[in-house]
Prior knowledge:
homodimer
Amino acid sequence: MKAFQDYYPDDLAWCYGCGRLNEAGLHIRSFWEGEEAVARFDPRPYHMAIPGYVYGGLIASLIDCHCTGTAAAAAYLHEGRKMGTEPALRFVTASLHVDYLKPTPLGVTLEVRARVKEIKGRKVVVEARLLANGEVTARGEVVAVRMPDTMVPRAKSAEEA
Amino acid sequence: MKAFQDYYPDDLAWCYGCGRLNEAGLHIRSFWEGEEAVARFDPRPYHMAIPGYVYGGLIASLIDCHCTGTAAAAAYLHEGRKMGTEPALRFVTASLHVDYLKPTPLGVTLEVRARVKEIKGRKVVVEARLLANGEVTARGEVVAVRMPDTMVPRAKSAEEA
């Protein structure tokens, strides 16, 4: 099954969090499950805050990439288009908010579940919750905006990747 | 010169973002410069959002760890104690907010500059800005709280690190 991120055009598929072409990256992958978008992720042992608990920056990254991916998927739906059709709909993060409700245990598969709260013009607001062992340990909200046309990949760094 | 993070006790120095003992980690290091705390960081080439620009999750991580470190340093000052004295003051993130103002270029040293906005009880609020080439590209705010006594390192994972 193809993830939202599998539809990103090649030149926009290098994100450290979710780009399929970034070999060093996290490869976050998102799918619809009913009205929610879900990503599952197994942190590596070194992704810790303190021993036994997941690093908050990783949690922020999971929420960020999953929500911008969800924004793209929702925008295609909103326009009645299939994902992957041109022009590509790719979103960047305008703002990210995360509330860490309790420590997130390391060693279990994490689940990020997101819902679209608002679609308006070039903006999509997505809210997410992070679950470990079925328990919500963090909540987040991302304001995603269509990638500005001025933000084009800079070729030099792509070659360095 | 010792960074704030160099004073963390060994069992709390495993953070992927800023723990000196986490070999796979980012090793974010923070220092006072007058009333501001500053961390400088060189993203690796693969820390990209799209080619040429820094990954937002890394920016969130830099702000997160730098601000919790600043919270600890400020709490010691507030109590009139030297960093590293017992009992250790170590903070976790209750909430993290980041506004991405413009794309952050990859390939230059990033600077995170933080200021304490409020210290009250176990809570420290820290605001930060991220600069690239001297230009502010993101702003953040972290609500840091003293690590709860119940959140003790889980030995098993420490061995796996």
